[in-house]
Amino acid sequence: NNSVMLNNCVGNQKVGYDIIMDVRKLSELDKRWPQLKYDYQTGIDEQYLWKKEFLKHGSCGIKLYPQPAYFDLAMNLKDKFDLLSTLRNHGITPGSTYLLHDIEKAIKTVSIKVPSLKCIEKYPGDV
């Protein structure tokens, strides 16, 4: 949505999060949107990341996209705009250094606008 930032929505009714129980949906979500801060079972049981992202972003469009539709849409968008493949197709691979402009240019080939990216310095010893 070009007119509204779908982030930390204000003024919406209080939106909750329903733990996802469908085993197939959990498998699909974990494959496309893994919860890397947690071991597999904790991620599936507690769903910290998915809950946080749904409450932060999904609550903005709750009338059009209730929780199940939000996650279906997120997975469909992930499949449609495979960022890693796009970067790889433009010669950008993990483990090397690239200019921010080159990364933005690659992403713009599959998006309408230049993405909002920021660089985070990785300090020696950080994992």
Question: How does this structure look, described?
Answer:
The chain has 6 helices and no strands. It has 2 domains: 23-80, no CATH class; 82-118, no CATH class. The mean pLDDT is 85. The longest helix is centred in the middle third of the chain and has 14 residues, at 67-80. With 127 residues, it is an all-alpha fold. This is Self-incompatibility ribonuclease. InterPro entries: RNase_T2-like, RNase_T2-like_sf. Pfam families: Ribonuclease_T2.
Blueprint of the fold:
Blueprint lengths: L22 H10 L7 H7 L1 H9 L10 H14 L2 H7 L10 H9 L19
Keywords:
globular, 2 domains, 127 residues, mainly alpha
In short:
Belongs to the RNase T2 family. With 127 residues, the protein is mostly helical.
